[in-house]
Amino acid sequence: MQTSLFLAQVFGLAYTIIGLGIIFNNKHYTKMIEELRTSAHYSYLGGVAAFVVGFAIITYHNIWISGWEVIITILGWAALIKGILLLALPQYIIDLSIKITKTKNLLTAFGGLALIIGLVLVYFGFFA
Question: Per the structure, how many domains does the chain have?
Answer without folding.
Answer: 1
